[in-house]
Amino acid sequence: MSVKKIFFVFILFWISNTSFAQFASVRGVILDANNKAVGNVNISCSGVRTQSNATGFYQIKIPANQKETIVFTHISLKKATLFVNLKENESQEFNLVMNDQQEQMGEIIVTTNNKKQVQGITVIDPEMIRKIPGANAGIESVLKSLPGVNSNNELSTQYAVRGGNYDENLVYVNEIEIYRPFLIRSGQQEGLSFTNTDLVQNVEFSAGGFQAKFGDKLSSVLDITYRKPTQFAAAFEASFLGGSLAVDAVSTNKKWSAITGVRYRNNSLLVNSQDTQTNYKPQFADVQTNINYQASAKWHWSFLGNISQNKYDYQPLTRQTRFGTGDNPMVLNVYYEGQEKDRYDTYFGAFKTTYKASEKLTFKFIGSIFHTLEQEYFDIFAQYRLDAVDPTVGSDSFGTVSYSEGIGSQLNHARNDLDALIVNTEIKGFYDWKKSQLEWGVKYTRESIRDRVVEWEVIDSAGFAINPPILNVLNKDEPYTTYSGPLTPYQNVRATNFNTINRFSAYGQWSRKTYLGQAELWMNAGARMQSWVVDGATEKGNSQFTVSPRAQLALKPAWEKDMVFRVSGGLYQQPPFYRELRDADGLVHPNVQAQKSIHFVVGNDYSFKMWDRPFKLVSEMYYKSLSNVNTYTIENVRIRYAATNLAKAYAQGLDLRLNGEFVAGTESWLSFGYLKTEENSQDKGYIARPTDQRLKFGMLFQDYMPNIPSVKLYLNLVYNTGLPGGSPSYADPYLYQNRLKDYRRVDVGFSKVFIDSNTTKKYNNWLGYFKELSVGLEIFNLFNNQNAITNTWVRDVYSKNEYAIPNYMTTRVFNIKLSAKL
């Protein structure tokens, strides 16, 4: 797809007033019992015939305003029949699973816009997630291409949504809340995301204004469902970055089923492309299983388990970074001694049972345990030399060192340990009452945290020890005036905390679909409450209580154009988690209050056709008014809170996403986001928050070669304007407002498919065991852009200057990947 065509889509959308043909249409993807795409399926209705393509996609026009029969036939599968009755110009999606056991019949219930669309939820295809390239490929990599979702760190799975931070996002797997390690400070330490994409069936994401049934966080919800196997299957993947294996198993009586995944990852390929030369020995591995038991028509049981072990052994050797301007180029050379040894072991288990008491009443019981053992140990001694480079072109010394601006060293030490145990028990209820749906739940959570923090940093410049910032202010004339006080580490944090947090939460909500004249109307209203108390701190914790009402409204007018208008909002409150209670000195403040955010979101979905293919433009404007704000700083992915509620803030913006089939049968999108978020601490005035990423452009694109459809292309492009940051961790943000450079990254993948469900050639050798087999080439950071995540600050005691040397992320990297399914 050329740039001209993409631009043409935007222009034509805004200026077009075209009336579409007086038909309805049905489209979707056809799969077999193994969830594999089925091509060459014959689809017919009222004399109109078509076929599904190699990806299983089909689309057929049918007469509107009357009952029609669509017939699906395939040479090796049983016929399927579908009855439809659609309105004029309506486009309905129907994904069909064909099997070889019995003839299938079904009828579409016409809703024009599905349930998730009216809730403002983005549904992401799991197959797309598995194919789109990324340095940290997976669900998070795809999320970062959506409007309103920002990240400038390809080594991290963390993301910020509409001005929030990494701790403000909810993640659920099978309705069970997922937690992440506490101590990780760098994206390259993270290892594996909890979510195993090989096990995923459904992915849904909401960037704000979500319903009361979701938990007490301020920014977003990622809701993931793992699949239930129907027969034995296996999937395997291997690359220079690691590998994975997933196995589906089903009992002979079909009551038991299990899906298990094992993963291993090694980021050496990516980390070795950075400026710092290291001996790097990471070991990121996990095993995950989801077991299901259908005891009867009324009872269903399941278990979700995960064991993860991330070892991060890091021994920096040397670093050379060139920076500055063309007129004043500089180079930083650093020589290291010492090493870092980090370890993050997590254990997670959850039982869930569903009891269908009647056709209208259902109960769910959920219990989960999360245990994390974390250590962060390092002693790293760095000696640096900051040199000015001759910029004179044609000079004999061009590009060589002219003189040294500064010489110094620093020693960083840490012995941090954390042991956290989190236990949850929850009951949910669902009741269909007349034409409404009622849902409620009650949950108890106990969090036990044992935490030891020992960190210090000593800085030397040209033989003079640099004192902490407060002493530097009192002794500005060093080294010319002798300082006679005690030598003190530049930074020194020592704390030991044993804390227990008990929480009770509950929610209730009501939903209904009705009509306003000829227009369809969806309504949802509900509220959440939470009560909690923090024990074990030196200061006595008080019991606190919050109530958060929320509502959604969606309207689909009876217009010729297919549009849905949405309004949602309410009060969102986030009671503090352990990290939000601990300040920069490691002290826990048990009476930190819940941060509050009033959401107001207005959205529109416009579905239309271009090139006789479906497209959708999703637009949302939002405003958040925040109070009781707990301010923080971000360094790489580590967040340090002030552990106070002395600020207020706001976030406002616009998100646009054009989604559709730029190439027939494949889904792609373009996204644009504008965001402005500022905070006012203690009435000192409004300044940019650390997540104030003003502009964002993303593109996720899929294509294949027309003459060789087995060769496929996947593109993931992100452009973000620079974040506030790069200042020293001790700096007052009111005195230091600076931004990092813009973040630009393009990852591209090429795949050659040898075997899939549409392969006609039959193999009699070992290849005959495979249902899918492909080999891919991935190029990360295609254009080799230099993106900085933070700054290293080098100090010169004589000139009293501090130099910001950017810490660049990964450069261009090539990866080869083998994928297979049995």
Secondary-structure blueprint of this entry?
Blueprint: H1 3-15, E1 24-31, E2 42-45, E3 48-51, E4 57-62, E5 68-74, E6 77-84, E7 91-93, E8 96-97, E9 104-107, H2 115-118, E10 122-124, H3 126-131, H4 139-143, E11 149-150, E12 160-161, E13 169-173, E14 176-177, E15 200-206, E16 220-226, E17 233-239, E18 242-250, E19 256-265, H5 268-271, E20 276-294, E21 299-324, E22 329-356, E23 361-389, E24 401-433, E25 436-461, E26 464-466, H6 469-474, E27 491-516, E28 519-535, E29 544-556, E30 562-574, H7 578-581, E31 595-610, E32 613-629, E33 632-635, E34 638-641, E35 647-663, E36 666-681, E37 686-688, E38 695-704, E39 711-720, E40 743-755, E41 772-780, E42 788-796, E43 801-808, E44 813-821
Parallel strand pairs: 1-7, 1-8, 6-9, 13-16
Antiparallel strand pairs: 1-4, 2-3, 2-5, 5-6, 10-15, 11-12, 13-14, 15-16, 17-18, 17-44, 18-19, 19-20, 20-21, 21-22, 22-23, 23-24, 24-25, 25-26, 25-27, 27-28, 28-29, 29-30, 30-31, 31-32, 32-35, 33-34, 35-36, 36-37, 36-38, 38-39, 39-40, 40-41, 41-44, 42-43
Model description:
The protein contains 7 helices and 44 strands. The strands form 7 sheets. It has a 22-stranded antiparallel β-barrel. The protein has a 5-stranded mixed sheet with strand order 3-2-5-6-9, with no helix packed on it. It starts with a helix and ends with a strand.
